[in-house]
């Protein structure tokens, strides 16, 4: 047996022949895995501190949810007296006439309203962006409720909201700000969880407004909106703040629309300039800074504990 | 009085000499508890894995393998086998990844120059089971995995079963969600290996 063990075929090199073994009377082997674990853990601890939230999490991507941002609601900021409030709805009963009015009961002011492009809207029952057009400007600093004798429009939000449906006008008579020229707009395709909480799409479109555009900020704060149309066609989406748009391919056309429905010059975001996130990072990672790093501290604690115990045993 | 029996014993007994290992020579093959030929190899790990999510995942890993014959005494041993892993938690990032199955083809290694070093690498498929009941199966991720471990156990020089503790690193590409880059996952594990 001794001859076999020292035969060149059975010992690849001198280093291997002299290598430590598992025998209790032999020197302990070098703790290579322990060192590797330490280096890897320390490196990850340093890097995870730089993690930032990339996604804002699950948000509404269906047009049904868009009404929560509509000017028709108490939560919205006051609108200009010449504004055309928008909301999403579908033409569920095309045979019925549209007979509605905005009524300020405390002032006894009744303003008949019409619906822009009603005939086109009632060609089918698809969910569409609708704009109310008052027959004359509203009174300043009043709350108007929307009341209808008959309407072909069905909007889930209008009928199932607990709050009174209406608009609050601003104290001043200043008209809505005109649409500004758009420049510097971009878009990015954000990743999202496509298997549960949001939609089946792995991506969603997010508009990116220029950081330093006070004119555009004032326009949006005044009740103006950005209408978004996709090259594939379909109805426009309205963009306010960080509202989520569906995943599309192709160019994106953005049009500023003032509170009084005056439309500005469209701006096209070409498909080639639209960036895409490579991977999906859940929203939780940005909420607690370095949360992952704390978990990674466990191997370090194990290393520390093991080293102390070994030193104590050697002493 | 020296009897013939004692004389015979004195002549046939070996003198006191240092052990072969102390002289730098390799140990006889009989000291290695791992059979030199082909045999069944099994491993069972329990661990935690951490991905790009604050919530980690708990894991149960099994390995059913077939050992390659020893190329030489004292050389590193290899086993090829199938490694299923069952994961519960958020490390896979997607909601459907709360419950996953991993089906990997792995090569597992031990012994040789560093007898306490456990190595394993391989790759396979990850199936997201979602949170629905009955679960829907969605093959989602193609991934590679590497394990770096430390074999321990008081009787590891005599027994085939040893403890193992270590780290595992995965790189997975979620093709089902059209992701464009692989995502790492780091985990720790503790378990047993039947070598």
Secondary-structure topology with pairs:
The complex is a heterodimer of chains A (315) and B (195).
Chain A (H helix, E strand, L loop, with lengths): L1 H5 L7 H4 L14 H17 L37 E6 L7 E6 L4 E7 L2 H4 L6 E7 L8 E8 L2 E2 L1 H5 L5 E3 L17 E6 L11 E6 L5 H8 L3 E6 L6 E3 L12 E6 L9 E3 L5 E2 L14 H24 L1
Parallel strand pairs in A: 8-14
Antiparallel strand pairs in A: 1-4, 1-6, 2-3, 2-5, 3-4, 5-7, 8-9, 10-11, 10-12, 12-13
Helix pairs in contact in A: 3-7
Chain B lengths: L3 H9 L27 E11 L6 E11 L8 E14 L9 E13 L5 E12 L9 E15 L8 E14 L8 E12 L1
Antiparallel strand pairs in B: 1-2, 1-8, 2-3, 3-4, 4-5, 5-6, 6-7, 7-8
Tell me about this structure.
The complex is a heterodimer of chains A (315) and B (195). By secondary structure, chain A is α+β, with helices and mostly antiparallel strands. Chain A has helices at 2-6, 14-17, 32-48, 118-121, 156-160, 214-221, 291-314; strands at 86-91, 99-104, 109-115, 128-134, 143-150, 153-154, 166-168, 186-191, 203-208, 225-230, 237-239, 252-257, 267-269, 275-276. Chain A has a seven-stranded antiparallel beta sheet. A four-stranded antiparallel beta sheet of chain A has the order 11-10-12-13, with no helix packed on it. In chain A, helix 3 (32-48) packs antiparallel against helix 7 (291-314). Residues 1-34 and 36-62 of chain A have low confidence and may be disordered. Chain B has an eight-stranded antiparallel β-barrel with strand order 1-2-3-4-5-6-7-8. Helix content of chain B is 5%, strand content 52%. Chain B has a single domain (39-69, 76-194), classed as Porin (Beta Barrel), CATH 2.40.160.20. Chain B is elongated and about 50 Å long. Mean pLDDT of chain B is 83; it is low at 6-29. Chain B contains one helix and eight strands, in the order H-E-E-E-E-E-E-E-E. Chains A and B meet through helix 1, helix 2, helix 3 and helix 7 of A and strand 5, strand 6, strand 7 and strand 8 of B.
The CATH topology of chain B is what?
A: Porin
Spatial order of strands in the largest sheet of chain A: 6-1-4-3-2-5-7
Strand order of the largest sheet of chain B: 1-2-3-4-5-6-7-8
Mean pLDDT of chain B: 83
Could you say which overall geometry of chain A the principal axes of the C-alpha atoms support? elongated
Q: How many distinct folded domains of chain B?
A: 1
Q: Give the overall form of chain B.
A: elongated
Structural class of chain B: mainly beta
Termini separation of chain B comes to: 52 Å
**How many individual β-strands of chain B?**
8
Low-confidence stretches of chain B: 6-29
Helical proportion of chain A, percent range: 10-25%
Q: Could you report the average pLDDT of chain A, rounded to the nearest whole number?
A: 72
Report the sheet with the most strands of chain B, covering strand number, pairing sense and barrel closure: 8 strands, antiparallel, barrel
Distance between the termini of chain A: 38 Å
CATH class of chain B: Mainly Beta
Poorly predicted segments of chain A: 1-34, 36-62
Order of helix and strand elements from N to C terminus of chain A? HHHEEEHEEEHEEEHEEEEEH
Helix content of chain B: under 10%
């Amino acid at each position: 047996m001794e001859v076999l063990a020292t035969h060149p075929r059975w010992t690849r090199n001198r280093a291997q022949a002299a290598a430590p073994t598992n025998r209790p009377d032999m020197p302990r082997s070098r703790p290579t895995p322990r060192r590797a674990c330490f280096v890897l853990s320390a490196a990850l601890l340093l890097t995870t501190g730089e993690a930032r939230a990339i996604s804002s999490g699950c948000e509404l991507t269906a047009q049904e949810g868009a009404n929560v941002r509509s000017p028709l609601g108490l939560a919205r900021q006051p609108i200009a007296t010449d504004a055309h409030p928008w909301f999403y709805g579908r033409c569920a009963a095309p045979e019925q006439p549209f007979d509605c009015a905005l009524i300020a009961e405390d002032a006894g002011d009744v303003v008949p309203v019409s619906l822009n492009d009603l005939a086109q809207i009632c060609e089918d029952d698809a969910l569409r962006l609708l704009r109310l057009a008052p027959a004359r400007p509203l009174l300043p600093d009043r709350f108007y409720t929307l009341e209808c004798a008959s309407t072909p429009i069905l909007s889930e939000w209008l009928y199932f909201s607990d709050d009174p449906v209406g608009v609050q006008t601003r104290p001043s008579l200043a008209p809505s700000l005109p649409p500004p020229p758009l420049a510097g707009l971009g878009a990015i395709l954000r990743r999202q969880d496509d298997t549960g909480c949001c939609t089946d799409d792995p991506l969603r479109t997010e508009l990116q407004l220029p950081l330093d555009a006070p004119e555009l900020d004032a326009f949006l704060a005044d009740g103006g909106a950005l209408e978004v149309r996709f090259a594939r066609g379909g109805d426009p989406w309205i963009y306010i703040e960080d509202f989520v748009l569906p995943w599309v391919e192709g160019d994106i056309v953005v049009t500023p629309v003032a509170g009084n429905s005056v439309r500005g010059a469209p701006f096209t975001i070409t498909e080639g300039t639209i960036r895409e996130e490579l991977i999906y990072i859940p929203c939780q990672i940005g909420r607690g800074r370095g949360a992952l790093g704390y978990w990674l501290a466990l191997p370090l604690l194990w290393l520390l504990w093991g080293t102390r115990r070994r030193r104590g045993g050697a002493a | 009085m020296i009897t013939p029996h004692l004389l015979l014993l004195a002549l046939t007994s070996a003198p006191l000499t240092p052990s072969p290992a102390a002289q730098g020579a390799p140990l006889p093959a009989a000291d290695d508890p791992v059979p030199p030929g082909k045999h069944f190899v099994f491993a069972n790990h329990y661990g935690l894995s951490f991905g790009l999510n604050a919530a980690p995942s708990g894991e149960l890993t099994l390995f059913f393998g077939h050992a390659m014959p020893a190329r030489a005494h004292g050389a590193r041993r290899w086993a090829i086998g199938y490694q299923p892993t069952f994961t519960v938690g958020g490390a896979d990032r997607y909601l459907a990844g709360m419950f996953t199955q991993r089906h990997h083809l792995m090569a597992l290694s031990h012994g040789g120059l560093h007898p306490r070093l456990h190595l394993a690498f391989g790759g396979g498929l990850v199936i997201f089971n979602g949170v629905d009941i009955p679960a829907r199966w969605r093959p989602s991720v193609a991934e590679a995995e590497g394990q770096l471990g430390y074999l321990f156990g008081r009787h590891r020089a005599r027994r085939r079963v040893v403890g193992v503790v270590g780290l595992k690193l995965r790189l997975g590409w979620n093709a089902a969600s059209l992701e464009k880059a692989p995502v790492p996952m780091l985990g720790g594990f503790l378990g047993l290996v039947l070598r």
